[in-house]
Specification:
By secondary structure, this protein is of the alpha/beta class. It has four domains: 104 residues, OB fold (Dihydrolipoamide Acetyltransferase, E2P); 73 residues, DNA polymerase, domain 1, CATH 1.10.150.20; 69 residues, DNA polymerase, domain 1 (Orthogonal Bundle); 68 residues, BRCT domain (Rossmann fold, 3-Layer(aba) Sandwich). The chain is built from 14 helices and eleven strands. Strands 1, 2, 3, 6 and 7 form a five-stranded antiparallel beta sheet that branches. A four-stranded parallel beta sheet has the order 9-8-10-11, with helices on both faces. A two-stranded antiparallel ribbon has the order 4-5. α12 links the parallel β8 and β9. α2 packs across α3 and α6 crosses α7. The longest helix is centred in the middle third of the chain and has 13 residues. The chain is globular and about 70 Å long.
Length: 346
Amino acid sequence: LNDIIFQVGRTGVVTPVAVLEPVLVAGSTISRATLHNEEEVRRKDIRIGDTVNIEKGGDVIPKVVSINIDNRPADSMPFETPRNCPVCETPLVRIGEEVAIRCTNTTCPAQVQGRVEHFVGRNAMDIEGFGPAVTEQLLQEGLVRNVGDLYTLTHEQLTSLERMGERSADNLLRSIEESKQRSLDRVIFGLGIQHVGERAARLLAENMRSIEALKGASSEQLESIQEIGPTIAQSVASFFGNQQNCEVVDKLREACIAMELPGAEASAPEQPMAGQIFVLTGALERFTRDEAVAHIEALGGRVTSNVSKKTNYVVAGENAGSKLKKGLALEVPVLTEDEFGKLINK
């Protein structure tokens, strides 16, 4: 372990990251691994200079799982929690009983970049061409201060960026314009409200039907929505209680972003899977994971990450792992990809 650095996420959470001597793990070279949070580092007594054991969590995210104390250097020093944000120097705080430490400066460059990257992402506004390098340049040049500024960018401003030619600028502006047609749930998800994932964003959009109604809703009103608990409700209310966030929403409205659902259709779509819970495992050939989830939710079902006695179906693709085994042990019905296709097309 060569160093411990700190990354600032879009919500201000400061996460310790292990900088490692490059090592091959499960077919890829790993030089960084998550340390999760300050409490985890202290509990495992991880120090710079330690020899550590790492694994890929869920075969995706590398993480430090333990240390080899016998190889610890004699001059190693215990981990020290930073007092200030590593990017903007704002004093860090711990809110309530949270384990995480946070930078509370919403204009922190790292947070702004994280929020922009989240907003333009595939599952939110899906604006192609907005890689980290482009986002970083726009922030450095002062052309973008929040996601609302994306819709006032000009061709001249974009072509002034490094490695941004005429055609690339045209394509990016076209993609920005096309994003104005994204659905309300994707707009809500793109705002990056803490604890509001894609599923919660869909529920909020379906029940509140407009950003204005969502903005004016109390925590109690939001909690009355099935599957929306107090944590999400309070987070949404807090988000819209922040004047800076409301100003960003106003910019999006001025840019003609979809701020409400279209009028109710003559008849509501059938939802034959209403209340049913699915777990997806393994690789599907005919569907991406997002497509499979979209089909299930459009028919009233929902997808969870863990198998339990409440699970109605496990959809098993190629190389299905422990979720399939657990489903079989709990006698949960298992669907092949073909069977799943027939079910959603009934």
